[in-house]
TrEMBL record:
<dbReference type="GO" id="GO:0009298">
    <property type="term" value="P:GDP-mannose biosynthetic process"/>
</dbReference>
<keyword id="KW-0808">Transferase</keyword>
<dbReference type="GO" id="GO:0008928">
    <property type="term" value="F:mannose-1-phosphate guanylyltransferase (GDP) activity"/>
</dbReference>
<dbReference type="GO" id="GO:0016853">
    <property type="term" value="F:isomerase activity"/>
</dbReference>
<dbReference type="GO" id="GO:0004475">
    <property type="term" value="F:mannose-1-phosphate guanylyltransferase (GTP) activity"/>
</dbReference>
<dbReference type="InterPro" id="IPR049577">
    <property type="entry name" value="GMPP_N"/>
</dbReference>
<keyword id="KW-0413">Isomerase</keyword>
<dbReference type="InterPro" id="IPR029044">
    <property type="entry name" value="Nucleotide-diphossugar_trans"/>
</dbReference>
<dbReference type="Pfam" id="PF00483">
    <property type="entry name" value="NTP_transferase"/>
</dbReference>
<dbReference type="InterPro" id="IPR051161">
    <property type="entry name" value="Mannose-6P_isomerase_type2"/>
</dbReference>
<protein>
    <submittedName>
        <fullName>Putative mannose-1-phosphate guanylyltransferase/mannose-6-phosphate isomerase</fullName>
        <ecNumber>2.7.7.22</ecNumber>
    </submittedName>
</protein>
<dbReference type="InterPro" id="IPR005835">
    <property type="entry name" value="NTP_transferase_dom"/>
</dbReference>
<keyword id="KW-0548">Nucleotidyltransferase</keyword>
<feature type="domain" description="Nucleotidyl transferase">
    <location>
        <begin position="10"/>
        <end position="290"/>
    </location>
</feature>
Length: 363
């Protein structure tokens, strides 16, 4: 049985959140916003979820240095030495490598679950069971474990995992293949095959195996044997990272490690999941009102309008007639109206275009 004191969580909260533009902005991205008017932001809800699974003192937050004050304001219970504030954005592989090194300084026997900060989990009880089973698996096995959920629609904005041979342990299979953001026709084939699962972005491994896997692609980030003698304190490690982190590649954990390893497994999970990083993900995750519209904590009057998602600032009223399948989102100085289908690529396109033509004020 896994020793709870050896179980750790790293919450990734450093992203810019541009796929939910204009409500998510570079200076205050989606993970720090209470999108649903629940009283808790996405980051806080993720923290709340893991506090029920493992010791509070074993939770670490990875973020950007420019968001450090926001994280400290939203999670004052997290000690400073458990917040890894990167000086520059470098994707998930360097982020996880730093967290692995930090945690192993205090507990070389740690088992880690790495979690995004912007997910919707339907059933917390099933989620807890799946995470606990996964931590038990990686404690007993030197392996990388991903968590997959069965697709409910042909979503081209998600990553997909194909299951291979069954291990016989808690719905865990060897991974056959990864595919990132297929086109809609392939996504439908994946869904119909029942062999492919959505990649939730939840990754588990024991710290030793994480370090071993990451050192193949990021050797300098995990320090050479000579450097280890000099970096024995959190202060020294933090100083080293602030100076050297910009030198590391902009590499995702999926691409840099998982897709290149032949020792990756996927657990079939049934906790109900949605990526809250996209407008379409938000639409799918939320309950629908009349005519399949989703109104996110906003004041609207709808007539002859179907299949839309609407998010407006407090104090604004929208009257919408004759709209079908659109995103209507307003924040500060930007109003965004766009077809909902395949919106992830369109949002990225428009954010880049606005940044080039209008400058940072609108991004």
């Amino acid at each position: 049985m896994t020793t709870k004191q050896n179980n750790y969580c790293v919450i990734l909260a450093g992203g810019k959140g541009r796929r939910l533009w204009p409500c998510s902005r570079d200076r205050y991205p989606k993970q720090f916003i209470d999108f649903f008017g629940s009283g808790r932001t996405q980051l806080q809800q993720t923290f709340d979820r893991f506090v029920r699974i493992l010791p509070r003192e074993n939770i670490y937050i990875n973020t950007s240095r420019k968001y450090l004050d926001i994280v400290r304001g939203q999670l004052p219970e997290i000690p400073m030495e458990h917040i890894l504030a990167e000086p520059i954005h470098r994707n998930t592989a360097p982020s996880v490598a730093w967290a692995v090194h930090r945690i192993m300084m205090s507990n070389p026997r740690a088992n880690l679950v790495v979690s995004p900060s912007d997910q919707h989990i339907v059933n917390d009880g099933d989620f807890r069971r799946n995470v606990e089973d996964g931590l038990q698996f990686v404690e007993a096995n030197d392996a990388l474990l991903t968590m997959g959920v069965r697709p409910t629609r042909p979503e081209p904005g998600y990553g997909y995992i194909q299951k291979g041979v069954y291990t016989g342990a808690n719905g865990i299979y060897k991974v056959q293949a990864f595919t990132e953001k297929p086109d809609r026709s392939f996504a439908r084939m994946f869904m119909d095959s029942r062999e492919w699962y959505w990649n939730t972005g939840l990754f588990l491994a024991n710290a030793r195996y994480f370090r071993q896997s990451l050192s193949k692609v990021l050797p300098s980030l995990l320090h050479t044997e000579e450097r280890k003698e000099k970096i024995t304190t959190i202060e020294a490690e933090d100083n080293f990272m602030q100076e050297n982190f910009p030198l590391y590649p902009n590499m995702s954990l999926d691409y840099g490690v998982l897709e290149k390893s032949d020792n990756v497994y996927v657990m079939k999970c049934d906790f109900g999941w949605a990526d809250l990083g996209t407008w379409h993900g938000l639409y799918e995750a939320m309950s629908k009102c009349e005519n399949d519209n989703v109104v996110v904590d906003s004041d609207v009057i709808l007539e002859n309008a179907t299949d839309n998602i609407i998010k407006l600032p407090k104090g604004r009223l929208a009257v919408i007639n004759g709209l079908d399948g659109y995103i209507v989102a307003e924040k500060d100085n930007v109003l965004f109206i766009c077809k909902k289908e395949d919106s992830s690529a369109l949002v990225r396109k428009y954010v880049n275009e606005v940044q080039m033509k209008k400058g940072e004020t609108y991004v």
